[in-house]
Amino acid sequence: MNKLLLFTSAIVLTTFIFSCSTLMPTKEPSVPVDTIEPEPNDIPESNYAQFEFLTISKGEFRDKITLSWEATPDVEDDLIYHIYRADKMNTPYKKIAETSEASWSDTKATPGLKLFYRVVPVIKGTEDGVEEGEAAETEDAPSTKELVSTPEKEDVDHDNFGYARSTYPSGTSFNALTRTYNWGIPKMTAAQRKQAKSDTEYLKEKVLHPVKLNMTLMMITPHLNSGKVVALTNFKAVSVVRRKRMIYLFDKDYSYVVAFTSSHVSRILSSRTRKSLYERLMFNSVAFGAKDEEIEVIDDKGYTRILPSFKSIALATQYYPKTRNWKNETILFVTGDKELQREMRKVQDRNNR
What is the pTM of this model? Predict the structure, then answer.
């Protein structure tokens, strides 16, 4: 019975691929890169409202962030504008440029990185002799330190942000990927060999039979080649949102994110039992996913990123990555997303008529 269910799942998975390009799930909320789910109040709001006098581009360009603001006509000739930027929440703004124009472009912005800006108008001739972050204090004029403060969560300026658009990766074909699978089992210490023996024994029943794996890959490969589904790998960070049964996988540069739904995998990753084993499986995995919308995440260093995302319909993984014996060692996790499962059943019903 288990073999029949597994074979049926593979057929349903492949049939679903024909319609995956039409599935565009709604945009995900901010997700912290941490296996411990934070309280909702700890997640910065994703409010795209713009500060009244300042307009900042939000993903319109790949190579820059543009700022523009309303000049003051009466004193326009006497003003210069100091541009300040904070790279993440709860860090000080730093002066990065100045201009006499009512616009400026940040051409050094990292794609996908959410950056916070302030523009401070300064009357010409009054800025000499003043250190960065300081200003002459009078009753009528606040100090620059007050104008250029830390972008706290309750500060209205935390909505005053922009980002350069990160590019969706093209992925690769599974055939091209498996041509690099020529590694052997790595050298290990006695303790590592003991742990590996325990782990592989536990995973034995989860390994997909080579015949069924070949059948699944034969049906999936044409859709990978067509671009409807992409194969993504080389993940370096994993995040879990337990209440949503959601796993997020990131590349080393946090240039994109793969979202995968699984009660089983998210439960293991959120516990102490076998957690390190399943993290290993996630890092070694190949994700088969369809392009989705951008989502906002916070990486392990506290930087906020707005990234291209993929909705994964399956993960193929091995305990030892890229080994020559991968056909006898592959484990396949299929999505547990109920909405995607319903769509899969609809496609199967239509094809059975």
Answer: 0.71
